[in-house]
């Protein structure tokens, strides 16, 4: 049995890259881990987050026997990629805001970055903007309440229009803004709601396909269809596996019910 590619996020956001991964790597076993006991990551202090992310990823890599780790979380990637690479012996592929594609896609040179408050303020993000969009106006908008909205929608509840509208409102003050980077993996899961609340046509850019391309380069050669177990047999882990609706959501992406992730003592609680 081929070792899986492990996808990690604080919650269900990492599922937004699963479709692209399955398309690029048909037949490759995947595994999923979410640290939903500590969700949301985007409002927590950096030092705490690094220790927590390293503890969760180490435990999940060991439990899954993964051959590569996809950090499908911008908040974690813009902070902890180096720490993860230092402590893991498998390739670690991160997810960072798609600033470069947005700079190419925007006709007006004015685009938005919608992400968690941690991601919008990180030096990593500032470097991406300086390197790939030096001549653009980038409207950075922290939209932490959208993380909970995506969790609701994916676990079977409706989104709240008032929260979506209030979270997006500052973007529309920039009249020439024509493109928005979805710099949090939870946000593509709200795509329908975001489109409905946009007052004009917007190009929405997420990182899903770029991540899948990068993973395919790193883990090639691609395993063949024949090595795959039955659909739905990919394993998953969660720090709060009993979360309502989680098992059903994971099943709809081809994962079996989440097992409890055993974290080292002392458990890092916030
Ligand atoms: N999905 C995560 C990201 O891409 C963050 C969600 C959270 O705040 O936990 O940044």
From TrEMBL:
One of its GO terms (molecular function) is glutamate racemase activity. SUPFAM superfamilies: Aspartate/glutamate racemase. It holds the Pfam family Asp_Glu_race. The gene is murI. It comes from Chromohalobacter japonicus. It comes from the Bacteria. Substrate binds at residues 9-10, 41-42, 74-75, 185-186. The keyword Transcription does not apply. The keyword Ribosomal protein does not apply. It is an enzyme of class 5 (isomerase). This is Glutamate racemase. Pathway: Cell wall biogenesis; peptidoglycan biosynthesis. One of its GO terms (biological process) is peptidoglycan biosynthetic process. The active site is at residues 73, 184. Keywords: Cell shape, Cell wall biogenesis/degradation, Isomerase, Peptidoglycan synthesis. Provides the (R)-glutamate required for cell wall biosynthesis. PROSITE patterns: ASP_GLU_RACEMASE_1 (PS00923), ASP_GLU_RACEMASE_2 (PS00924). Belongs to the aspartate/glutamate racemases family. It catalyses: L-glutamate = D-glutamate. Its EC number is 5.1.1.3.
